[in-house]
Amino acid sequence: MKILDLPKSSRPRERMLEKGAQALSDAELLAIILRTGTINENVIDMSNRLINEYGLENLYQCSIKELQKIKGMGESKALQILAISELSKRQSLAKSSKSFVSSAKAVFEIMHEKLKDEKQENFVVIHLNNRNYFIKEELITKGILDASIIDPREVFKSAIRNSASRVILVHNHPSGNPLPSKEDLEVTKKLIEAGDLLGIKVLDHVIIGKEEYWSWKENQKHDAPPRLKSRGL
After folding, report:
1. Which of 135, 145, 188, 212 is a plausible cystine mate for 205, CB 3.0–4.6 Å?
2. What is the dihedral of CA 189, 113, 133, 222, to 10 degrees?
3. What is the pLDDT along the chain (233 residues), one digit of tens a residue?
4. Phi, psi of 172 (to 5 degrees)
5. Which domains occur in the chain, in start order?
6. CB-based contacts of 76: which residues, under 8 Å, 6+ apart?
7. Which residue, 73, 67, 107, 97, is CA-closest to 85?
8. Secondary structure of residue 182 in the 3-state scheme
9. Residue 124: DSSP 8-state
10. If phi over 0 gives left and psi between -120 and 50 gives alpha, with beta otherwise, what is residue 213?
11. For the chain, what is the radius of gyration of the CA atoms?
12. Can you tell me the distance from the alpha carbon of 93 to that of 87, in angstroms, rounded to the nearest whole number?
């Protein structure tokens, strides 16, 4: 049945106008985003199928090529889904990043949603003022982290431009395990030394896993093997 053949009280757009977004199901909200179905499947049925087969979380984690392999999902619909997913990540980051950054856990809460599903390592620098308030975050590199290819000038250039007094290094491990590699530790030491020379203090290096994180600062207090922290701690 086509959407126009449904009574107005059952159409997603009309229901949202009348009752608000909170009254709609996940499939109805997705139907509003996708707008149209196919010749053989209306947009509500398509949305129900996508959610039942993949789940919202998995659907939003797909690449554009993966989305386009799904029946009925062309380039336009794939881009719509990726755009709404990216907006959701940015909204979450904007909401959490306006506060005082006091700990590795706070960094994890700011960056986890943005980095947890990345399929490559993303090396990010968080810029702070002298009272540890967030200024901005900047992606420095994508790919395997290696001390030999990390240029301190690139890491600190934006910090200088934004008058940051302190920085926190952050990167993700696509494997989900945030324990540091030898290269991770070398990069950290190299950038701490460079920051000291420039008068910009590197407060920490936080590695983001699937649901855990590792903190350079927290592990400097212990002689024991590297310790992980879960999201709830």
Report:
1. 188
2. -40
3. 677 778 888 888 999 999 999 899 999 999 999 988 888 898 999 999 999 888 887 888 788 888 888 888 899 999 999 898 888 877 766 655 556 788 999 899 889 988 988 889 999 999 999 888 888 889 998 887 776 678 898 889 989 988 899 999 999 999 999 999 999 999 999 999 999 999 999 999 999 998 899 999 998 865 444 555 665 54
4. -105, 155
5. 3-92 (1.10.150), 97-230 (3.40.140.10)
6. none
7. 67
8. helix
9. E
10. beta
11. 22
12. 10
CB 128, CB 147: distance < 8 Å: no
Q: 3-state SS string over 162-181? A: CCCCEEEEEEECCCCCCCCC
For residue 229, give the H/E element and its range.
Answer: strand 228-230
Tokens of 169: 């290094």
Rounded to whole angstroms, the Cα distance separating 93 from 115 reads 11
Owner of token pair 């939003």: 60
Enter the DSSP assignment of 24: S
If you search the block for the tokens 């881009």, which residue do you land on? Answer: 79
Round to whole Å and give the CA distance between 223 and 127.
Answer: 29
